[in-house]
Amino acid sequence: MKSSKFGKLIISLIAIIIVMITSIGIIASYPTIDKIAKEKEKEYSYFEGYEFTGIMKGISYKAFYDTMRTSGEETVTPFEILVKETSKGRRDEHAINYFNSLVEDYTQEYLNVDYFAINPKEKISVTNIEGIEVLENGDIDINSIKSDYYQFYVIINYDDLGKPTVKYAYGANQDTVQQNIYNNSNSGFYGYHQDLVDITNVNIMVGVPKELRYYDGIAWKLNNSLNDSYGEAAVIFISIAIAVVILIGLLIPYNRAKEIIGFKVITKTPFEIICVLVGINIFLTVASAMFMISECIVGVPGRFIGGLTGDIGLSHGTYYLINFLVWSVIFTVFFNVGLMLKHIFKTGFKKYFFESTIIGRVLGFVGRYIKRTIKALAEVDLTKKNNKVILKVILINGAIVSLFCFAWFFGIIGVIIYSVVVFLLTKKYVDEISNKYKVLSEATKRIAAGNLDVKIAEDLGVFEPLKDDLERIQSGFKKAVDEEVRSQKMKTELISNVSHDLKTPLTSIITYVDLLKDENLAEEKRVQYLDTLDRKAQRLQFLIEDLFEVSKATSGNITMNIEAVDVVSLMKQTLLELEDKLESSSLILRKNFPDEKVILQLDSFRTFRVFENLVSNITKYAMVSTRVYIDIIDQKDYVEITLKNIAAEEINFDAENIVERFVRGDESRNTEGSGLGLAIAKSFVELQGGSLNIKVDGDLFKVMINFKK
After folding, report:
1. DSSP E strands, 527-648
2. DSSP letter at 689?
3. Residue 492: inside a domain, yes or no?
4. CB count, 10 Å around CB of 444?
């Protein structure tokens, strides 16, 4: 037990070390990730994107409107300036809403954007910054823009026809910005930009400072762009690490994997819950790659660590410790994913699906319920009423059809599909019944033809009761035939044995009678022959008496004189009368009798005859100088009398047949006896409500008599 616990501890410790090494490996790759992320930032600028071009379009419309409305003395509305004459009264409200949405984006979402706009013809300018100068031709002076102040700025000139031209771009590719502005001028809010006039005769500068003053949409996008770069740079390192821990989980031998702490909990958790946990872990992995790595490298709290700890000051070492703990959790989950996949492969997809998934368990339950219903139909007991089964099927069918009714038109399609399924199941059910009936019919014909060894191995469903009845009839017929054959054989043997046993003494009597007729026979011989005649006559008399006794016992035509009998005293009396025979056989008697009397309601004469026959058999057939055991055991509800001896000859007869009439253990019939002793004993015992059984174990011959109290 201690060794087993130690083994579990070792394999669990190895798993922890694997996770820790992988976590340290990811953190060790941070400098490389940082380098790759910064290279990606150089390759792509957020300001070149289509989204920021849309922002510049909104700012351009606002600047254009501001220059137009300040050109006159009267206040004018955007509707009067921006909506085309052909669109007024048609979609003007939507067009102005589109313009207002552009302006609203600038005033609320893009506060970090600086702009300067000038109408070169009217010499009217609008701006939210200072220090921008204009050349004599109306162009914006690039030299007046502080390049070191901005991370991005662009100058766009709109001509008389509304065509935009990017004159200069800093922090982004000029051609790319030009192309995006051109593409953006042909799209808009559900097409309502087409109802706005083109921006004309305006030169605009749009810039974003290096030091952002507000946390607006620009700041959020720039931060996201940086996080995306770190996420893209880290994905290959994280993917390799995840693949490694999953692969290690798969390669660990299953018997060892089962010893890892928590493995049993994982395997018993439903698959759907595991998927949710893995999904959360994947989300945590993505968030860590995009936010946590950059926070750790820069050492400034952001969305991840900042969201957990707030803006409190943390040491750089603390950032790395948090990163290590988070990656340890992530890789622990993925390591367990590897173990889980191994468990699924080992268990088998089908077995795992139905045992370890909620959907599989539900489907399995539904499937088992349907199978039980179909089985109930297929195994309907035709000998009983089946109202419950029929009602159950009707209710289930009604519930299913009712559900289809709630689906309106689609319910009709469902009913059609359901009807087809019911038809197929019903057809299959009827075909199965037909096939089972054919099997039953064929078996009946073979039995009728006399083949009583027919076996029906398969399940006959509704005909199963008939199958059981047929097997009982078959067994009854076979038993009757066997009994008849056995009876005929016994009759033949009985006649043969009776003829032999009666003929032997009778032949001797006839022979000696003929010898006595000789007048010249000596007196000594005459006395000897008469003595032999007397013995043979007595043997013939005993044989005929035994035959009458067993005949009356078998037919039941015998009167029993029931009285209180002490079986212990009766057995002692029997042994006393047969003492000479026991001594002449040199048998050693071992008795185990109760000290007190054992009183039973028996016929004393016939019980004595039972004991006498059994003890006489022992003196005839037991091996000389062996021990004989006679036990009388007084139980609570019955008395057991047991006689045991070792046979002189090999026991090669059937213990059941030895109690039949004229059956001897000495098949050569050389010993004296009628062969009726055990048969008479068994009949007398059974007539008194008891039982007599023979048991043979090698050369041990054992007789067991039980009398009920």
Report:
1. 562-566, 588-592, 599-603, 627-634, 638-646
2. T
3. no
4. 16
Give residue 521's identity as a one-letter amino acid code: L
Are 182 and 228 members of one domain? no
State the chain's maximal CA–CA distance in angstroms. Answer: 189
Give the 3-state secondary structure of residue 142: helix
Question: Which residue in 583, 649, 571 sits closest to 613, CA to CA?
Answer: 571
- Domain edge (last residue) among 328, 354, 380: 354
- If DSSP codes are grouped into helix, strand and coil, which group holds residue 694? strand
What is the per-residue pLDDT for 408? Answer: 63
- At residue 98, the pLDDT reads 61
Q: Helices (DSSP H) in 143-216: which residue ranges? A: 174-184
Residue 121's closest CA among 134, 106, 130, 133?
Answer: 134
- Please check whether residue 569 is in contact with residue 608, taking contact to mean a CB–CB distance below 8 angstroms: no
Q: How many C-beta atoms lie closer than 10 Å to residue 522's C-beta? A: 9
What single-letter amino acid sits at 122? E
Rounded Cα distance, 233 and 231, in Å: 5
- What's the structural domain count of the chain? 3
In a domain? residue 225? yes
pLDDT digits (tens, 9 = 90+) for 558-568: 778 899 999 99
3-state SS of 107-121? HHHCCCCEEEEEECC
Residue 283 CB partners (closer than 8 Å, separation 6+): none
> pLDDT averaged over the chain?
78
194 shares a domain with 311: no
**Tens-digit pLDDT profile for residues 479-491:** 777 777 766 665 6
- Residue ending a domain, choose from 302, 329, 354: 354
Spatial distance between the Cα atoms of 254 and 344, rounded to a whole number of angstroms: 11
3-class DSSP assignment, residue 213? coil
Distance CA 94, CA 90 (A): 9
Indicate the DSSP class of residue 623: P
- Residue 545's contacts (CB-CB under 8 Å, 6 or more residues apart) are none
User: Per mean pLDDT, which of 7-16, 193-202, 690-699 is the most reliable?
Assistant: 690-699
Distance CA 510, CA 537 (A): 11
* Structural domain harbouring 84: 50-214
pLDDT of residue 108: 66
Q: Which amino acid is at 204?
A: I
Are the C-beta atoms of residues 164 and 185 closer than 8 Å to each other?
yes
- CATH number of the domain bearing residue 565: 3.30.565.10
Is the distance from CB of 229 to CB of 41 less than 8 angstroms?
Answer: yes
Same domain for 77 and 34?
A: no
Least confident of 147-161, 436-450, 569-583: 436-450
Nearby residues of 51 by Cβ (< 8 Å), 6 or more positions away: 221
Q: Tell me how many degrees the CA angle 123-125-129 measures, rounded to the nearest 5.
A: 145
For residue 569, what pLDDT is reported? 94
pLDDT of residue 509: 82
The length of the chain is 709
Domain assignment of residue 405, yes or no: no
